[in-house]
């Protein structure tokens, strides 16, 4: 475990160093493509080679700006390293060069990538800064310009200065209308594609007007054209409408995101040529400049996409994902199950000796564990990331699991699961998070009053461990020592745990049921012991509300994500994160581990889902298509698919291997707060704020896919609208939003929520 | 569309006057207009920003309402100190008003009377968060495991013991239990009965998809046809499931059986269970056939039981009865006007049944009468016609008058009061003439007291004071003098009410409202249920009054207000008759409209001075019910009422009425 921790610090460093750049010139979104191309760790040299080769004049300016930033912060060593890596001459850092870099209009918003940096030398700095409370660095950098820290000011102004170029403010309307007219007159097949540029153009033009203090023109512009924008940008437009002064721009996160990340559009070559020709003919430089500087147009060869195809994929804060962002191989297969002998009933589990093995082969054949004996070609190697060793108790639990699995009900459209609803009463709208243990024996709730409560839903009551003095009296050799350490006097059906100082938004049981994690508004993630019912660790680092946290399916690791837009990977025995996943442009609203524990998926208010490689810390998938903040994620049990639910009431299905959207399930009318696949992946259950549980035919949704299409380079899918066929059932509660779903090991669906009178 | 949206986006800015006002409040006078504009724009922008952040907290708090704590948290995000002192958890106290082109949200502050606050009992302590359901669910599990299980049975051991949950769905079907929403809402039922062709029933459509397994192959065809042709109302078969059949059997048996405790539970179930929609036609037929048979056999007790069933059905907030009125109304009217309802008309108290049925009739007129079905006018005509008939017997006469009187003071004013003189003469003929038959005499007496009771309060409002006996005699004939004293009492009573709002109070509670006065048998209902009923799954949960669980609200209990004033003349012998004949038939009498104006305040006026009441010749007890949140002991009631009966006259009468307690029974989760 330590090895990973150590190994990780390297990547961690590389990631971290990117962050200072975020406030100045960081183009986080643009980064990802680059980061992916560089293989992590040992191959860093190749990565850096690529970069030096690819240094364009613009990039060079960026590099210079970074160097200047480092120098200003007296990080001479890093300056030296970076300079060497980038192959820049010693004197490149003279003030003159700097000035040109700073003044370069759009150039500053380039790419910063320190992938090749010598990690160890930077270690001291990073660890220093992160442990020093991470106040300034995290807040200042990750939050980008949000906190207008004094030292950020120059950098922010660099970002905004891109807007300083002035055209005649009264002509903006004309330009925009011209373009609108043009796009309305092009052939139908191009119109839909070219219409994509409206929204980013509109926003940038509006911001330019605002930045240059043309308040009334900006307002007029907004009023004239905001109605034309796609309805799924409503939320962003609302924020934009409030912003009418240059001073407002400084502190506005949404804006800075829009500025610092290029809006990505996918347009076919033909359509693009059409647009380019038109703008050049008209000498419409204003618009052409914006397109060049602020938009990233991902040109593909082939048929232009239809309106529905475009609508399916758009909606995120920064446009679609670039195609190459989703090209990295993802090992989505499952890990081999550890070989545990399934003992016959009369045998003792502990007796796992060699001579016993041949005898026990027989019962093992039927067990679920035997299925995974063959190595899945898509699975990561068993020790790609170090996993905790199985304890005896874990093995016992695995055996229990297999036994239960044999009694599992096969679900399907003809055999729907029963839904059992756990209602929290008298919660007074204060229930914010729920989790159930894998064996469905405990249920935990996080509440707005900062408490965490655990209930036992079996007759077995919750007991604490005896006090140290009493423990001394116990005969440690006895067989039932585990039973003896428990204090009968403390037995109760529920326990309350106090510790947080703000609403608890995320909660997760460890797979071994010994720990519970909770994340809260107070910026901490807490680890609780379910033996003593006390807090063991408070993991600090986020500093802002932590919206979600989840344990790895193998325990030990956990992930958290929150308002500071980064997700962190932790190990329970480290008080600092092992990885920081940075790239989202808005709050991370939900986090989920891949079943093989090698990847983490995060959903965000920027309406994208990202998949992160735990090993390298890189973003390996970006999924766009949701039209609202994503509030729930679920991996299919075979690890191949991901389902996501958002405030827009839609569930989207994603093929992880191909990096494509493969389904859309419409039906809910409000935020979907919980998603869960049945144990064998046949049924997808979704629970929503609209007081319903819906069941969907996941088998059919995935079987109908024509996977051949995916190999086509375009990666454009055509989704048929078959939600109604896939919807197997809708179950309405009286007045209880469904905020958690859980399939028991035998495929009974448990749902939970707080009654809302 | 675009227009609307654009309007939505228009940036709203706080008026500069507010800036000035705020500046003055912190001691800055003479703020320049420019500064105001700048400030208001800045402030508006910041407020919007904070509101947008606060929304984030609302979403993560899994709520639909923005609370003050969300705003506090949003301020914290910006490193601004939260606003202290705003602690409304859930309730946002703003009210909306518009008028004169202005829209206004304001904070409603009502004037509070301190004495009211002091006199109101303390609210219940808020309950702690809990996950527990109650015992009835416990057994419920067991049954569903038996009925539905192939795989489910395995879970039974876990779930039976844990029992904090309920079944939202069982193998794809949603069971009709109180925790789940009713299969068809009342609105749907109403829409279905009024506009049968237009209705799209979401419930049924959903069910269709749920049962997709059986219809899987036929659905596409059906859909296609439906779209192409006129939308025909699908013929629905009403097959009851095994549990529903069992439930029906158990409920109907309990309703007409001999055990009062069981009956109370069954009626409670009918009145509260949300899943009875499909059984409604059965119940309706059961009642109508039951009345038909038992009227012929003069079985008063059974008729009363059936009427109580009607009452329970009408009380069920999830049922819409209109489709079954053709069966129910004849049954109810029969119980009002039938010549003979019991074997011994001289002894048995069939009058109470007539009163009760009359009230039911009035209730259904109120609820269901529309311009198309004209129930009220048809019923009024029916009653008037037979009343006007000279040959009509006293029993029927009584029923007609009761039926009319219950329809409200307008009906009394226009139809009954003009006939008081005629009716008085008829009564006089019986009372003072040669003794024809005892039965006629009793009938006349009852009609007399009924008329006095209903008319007094109406006349009290109609006629100006002073009340002159002679004037009354000329206006109303034989009944005049009695009427006069009644009216005077009604007036003093109204005056007393106005004065004595803050007198000492006495609350009497009862687990549920029923027709009967003697309810000693009911006390068992709040205790453990009898095992015989537990056999049936549906009946069991549905009937449960759910006692003792913190999670669920107590059953819609009723508080009675007992008030005493002096009342008209009657003999004490009748009181004895009444109580002795009470064994089977419960007693009620109607509430005069005066009491309906009573505010739901609990008080006992007589309690203040026993001497006062003793000095008066007669006493009138008015018992008005109130919905109560806490069900206190039944013993209180049973110990108080008998004593008051003994000192009261029959004519003053016991007045029991169950007040409509909206929401009292809708609180149970799911």
From TrEMBL, chain A:
Keyword field contains Lipoprotein: no
Bias-annotated ranges (Basic and acidic residues): 365-376
WD repeats: 424-465, 497-530, 539-570, 581-622, 623-656, 665-697
Keyword Chloroplast tagged: no
Pfam families with a match to the protein in the record: TFIID_NTD2 (PF04494), WD40 (PF00400)
Signal peptide residues on this chain, from the entry's feature table: none
GO molecular function: RNA polymerase II general transcription initiation factor activity
UniProtKB keywords: Nucleus, Repeat, Transcription, Transcription regulation, WD repeat
Composition skew (Low complexity), residue ranges: 22-48
Cellular component terms (Gene Ontology): transcription factor TFIID complex
Domain TFIID subunit TAF5 NTD2 span(s) in chain numbering: 167-295
A GO BP entry: transcription initiation at RNA polymerase II promoter
Locations listed in the record: Nucleus
Biased composition annotated in UniProt, kind: Acidic residues: 342-353
Region Disordered, annotated ranges: 19-56, 90-109, 124-147, 342-390
Source domain of life: Eukaryota
Record-linked PANTHER family: TRANSCRIPTION INITIATION FACTOR TFIID (PTHR19879), TRANSCRIPTION INITIATION FACTOR TFIID SUBUNIT 5 (PTHR19879:SF4)
Family as reported in the entry's similarity comment: Belongs to the WD repeat TAF5 family.
Name by which UniProt lists this protein: Transcription initiation factor TFIID subunit 5
Gene: TAF5
UniProtKB/TrEMBL annotation, chain B:
Region forming the signal peptide: none
Pfam families named in the record: TAF, TAF6_C
SUPFAM superfamilies per UniProt: Histone-fold
Subcellular location: Nucleus
UniProt key word Transmembrane helix: yes
Spans traversing the lipid bilayer: 138-159
GO CC annotation: SAGA complex; SLIK (SAGA-like) complex; transcription factor TFIID complex
Compositionally biased intervals (Low complexity): 515-527, 630-649
InterPro entries: Histone-fold, TAF6, TAF6_C, TAF6_C_sf, TAF_TATA-bd_Histone-like_dom
Keywords noted in UniProt: Membrane, Nucleus, Transcription, Transcription regulation, Transmembrane, Transmembrane helix
Pro residues composition-biased segments: 547-556
Single GO MF annotation: transcription coactivator activity
Domain TATA box binding protein associated factor (TAF) histone-like fold: 12-78
Chain residue ranges for the region called Disordered: 177-229, 510-558, 630-670
Compositional bias per record (Polar residues), positions renumbered to this chain: 211-220
Primary location: nucleus
Highest taxon of the lineage: Eukaryota
Alphabetical GO biological process terms: RNA polymerase II preinitiation complex assembly
Entry keyword annotation includes Cell membrane: no
Family: Belongs to the TAF6 family.
Protein name: Transcription initiation factor TFIID subunit 6
Organism from which the protein derives: Oreochromis niloticus
Organismal lineage: Eukaryota, Metazoa, Chordata, Craniata, Vertebrata
The gene coding this protein: TAF6
